[in-house]
Every structure is written in C-alpha cells, then in structure tokens.
Design goal:
Blueprint: E1 4-7, H1 10-13, H2 15-20, H3 26-44, E2 47-51, H4 54-65, H5 70-79, E3 81-83, H6 94-127, H7 136-164, H8 171-183, E4 186-189, H9 192-201, E5 205-207, H10 211-220
Parallel strand pairs: 1-2, 1-4, 2-3, 4-5
Helix pairs in contact: 3-5, 3-10, 6-7, 8-9
C-alpha cells in the first residue's frame, strides 16, 4: 500500500529530531529531512502532505524568520504536497467532541489553579518587602525585578503546561488531523495534543524524531536499480 504522511510544522522543526540527526542548525535540519522526503518520493513514491494554507504558511514563515535560504523554501514547495482538508466531508464521531469538551474543562481548571497560586505567592512576597523604604519608584522597580518578574515567568511555564499540554490549540493542528483522516495517512508531529487526538480518531501517528529514521530504513531496502518493490 502506498505510504502517505501528513506533516505538522514540528515534523521539520523539532529540536530532538535535529539532535538525533546530529545537526545543530535549524535550517540544515530542515534541509536534511526534506532531502530524505525527496529521495523517498522519487524512489519509493512515498507522499508527504501539508495542510494548505495553514501548515504550509507556518513552514514558510518559520523558514524565513530563521534565516533559511531560498533553496529550502523551494524544497518545501517541491517535495511537500499541498492540500486543503475537506472540512465538510470528513466525519468525526460525536463522542470525540464530548470527550474533548470534558478534557478542556479539566485543563482550564488546572490553569486557574496555577493562576491562583501565582497570585498568592506574589502577594505574600510583596508583603514581606521592607515597607520602610521611602523611594516608591525604587520599591516598584525592585518588586517588579525581584518578585513579580520571576513569578510571572514561572507562572507562564506552569500555566502553559497545565492548560495547553495535550490539547489542540490551533487551526493547523486540527487541519493536520482532518487531512490525515481524509487521506488515511499517518500524522508526523512532536505535539502531544496531536498525538493524543490522532489516537482518538484512529489515525496513525509517527513521532517527528523517528520519522527521518523511518525514511532511512525504507530507503535502505530500496533495490539498487532504483525501482520499488510492490
């Protein structure tokens, strides 16, 4: 059966994937993965899709914002098949929506708890400051730098973990799943939210950091004459 994959942005940008490939530079990491995709397309007729315009636009912007050259942009345009998911015809079981709403309520409550803890911590530390200092502006600066700033930073990390981990929080995430469902393809991503809901939808999931190794294994078994076995 012809292999099809739908790529999330993280399929090309994941840090752990670059570490496994022993590549430090982000652009060179994208190039290496795209070259494997090109070889797999030419020799094995493996197709790699990206939802258009959502993920396709994300990849373009990511490459440009990180200083990647025009050749990498051209590789994205050449070797990744752009397709808009059929949002009207792809059917999603109703129990998925029911579970998603329940899951979102749980995550929101966890996020609210994190916010309450941050407020209490900031209040207690502000009260413990020396109230006898007369320079109000200095007190405000010191409070912002020494108390509020670090707490806000910690709050953001904990809030992100409590609320966003395991959820679909962007249109591209949903497009990746819909297109994979439509094409009966595997999803390639490093996003736990995509992985969790791919399992719920019965969609195959390939972690981004194993995808290049999978392509290398396919190519390793390609006959020397370049033809692929059927």
């Amino acid at each position: 059966m012809k292999q099809r994959f739908v790529l999330d942005t993280t399929a090309l940008t994941d840090l752990q994937t670059r570490e496994m490939l022993e590549i430090e530079d982000l652009c060179q990491g994208m190039r290496a993965i795209l070259e494997l995709i090109a070889e797999s397309r030419l020799h094995l007729q493996i197709s790699c899709y990206v939802p258009f315009p959502s993920v396709y636009k994300e990849l373009h912007e990511f490459a440009k914002n990180n200083g990647c050259d025009d050749e990498i942009i051209a590789m994205i345009d050449t070797w990744l098949v752009k397709k808009t998911p059929d949002r009207h015809e792809v059917k999603i079981p109703s129990h998925i929506f029911h579970e998603y709403v329940s899951y979102m309520r749980e995550r929101i409550n966890k996020g609210m708890t994190v916010a309450e803890e941050a407020i209490r911590e900031a209040s207690m530390q502000c009260l413990s400051l020396d109230s006898e200092i007369e320079d109000t502006h200095k007190v405000e600066d010191d409070t912002d730098r020494e108390v509020i700033g670090p707490i806000v930073g910690k709050f953001r990390n904990k809030y992100r973990s409590a609320l966003r981990y395991g959820i679909l929080d962007s249109a591209p995430d949903i497009d990746v799943l819909l297109l994979a469902k439509e094409l009966d393809a595997a999803v390639v991503a490093s996003d736990y939210g995509i992985q969790k809901w791919a399992e719920q939808l019965g969609v195959r999931f390939v972690p981004a950091n194993t995808f290049p190794m999978m392509l290398k294994e396919y190519l390793r078994h390609t006959p020397s004459d370049g033809t692929h076995q059927k």
